[in-house]
Design a protein that fits this description.
By secondary structure, this protein is an alpha+beta fold. It contains 4 helices and 7 strands. InterPro entries: HotDog_dom_sf, MaoC-like_dom, MCH/BMMD.
C-alpha cells in the first residue's frame, strides 16, 4: 500500500495500491448530477419508479459514481504526479443506491515511459465497493504522469 505522498512514474511499481476514503451517495448528489447533466431517467429521480424496476431505492447515475471515483482518487493521501487522463475502460457491475457509501482500491497494473523520457503512462485498475463490500463498478484508467 502506498503511503501518503506524491508519486511519479519512477517511484511506482506494478502492484502498488492505494485505498481511498469513502463517500456517501446522497439523494442531493443524485439530484445535482441530474440537474447538471439533464439525465432524469426515472430510476434516478423517483423511488417508486426505481422500485418498479426492481431496485430498493433511487439509483445513482453510473457516471456520477465514476466521477466520484475520480474525486476519491484525487483526495487520497497517496497522489500521482499526473498530467492528464488518457481514457477509461469501465463497467457498472451493480447498482449504487441512494444512501450507499462507496470506496475504491486502486492498483497499478502497468507502467511505461514515453519516448521523450519526461513522462509516462500508468495503467490503474479501480475496484469500487459499497458499504457491504459488493463490487459496484470496476475498470481501468490510463493516466499520463510525470517521471
Amino acid at each position: 500500500m502506498l503511503g501518503p505522498g506524491r508519486y511519479g512514474l519512477a517511484a511506482l511499481q506494478v502492484g502498488d495500491r492505494i485505498e481511498t476514503g469513502r463517500r456517501h451517495v446522497s439523494t442531493a448528489l443524485i439530484d445535482a448530477f441530474a440537474e447538471m447533466t439533464g439525465d432524469r431517467f426515472e430510476i434516478h429521480m423517483d423511488k417508486k419508479a426505481a422500485q418498479r424496476h426492481g431496485f430498493a431505492a433511487r439509483v445513482a447515475h453510473g457516471l456520477l459514481v465514476l466521477s466520484m471515483v475520480d474525486g476519491l482518487k484525487n483526495q487520497a493521501g497517496a497522489q500521482f504526479e499526473a498530467m492528464a487522463s488518457l481514457g477509461w475502460d469501465w463497467e457498472f457491475t451493480g447498482p449504487v443506491l441512494a444512501g450507499d457509501t462507496i470506496g475504491v482500491m486502486i492498483t497499478v497494473e502497468a507502467l511505461r515511459a514515453t519516448s521523450d523520457g519526461k513522462r509516462g503512462v500508468a495503467t490503474l485498475r479501480f475496484d469500487v465497493t459499497n458499504q457491504r463490500g459488493e463490487t459496484v463498478q470496476r475498470g481501468t484508467n490510463a493516466l499520463m504522469v510525470y517521471v
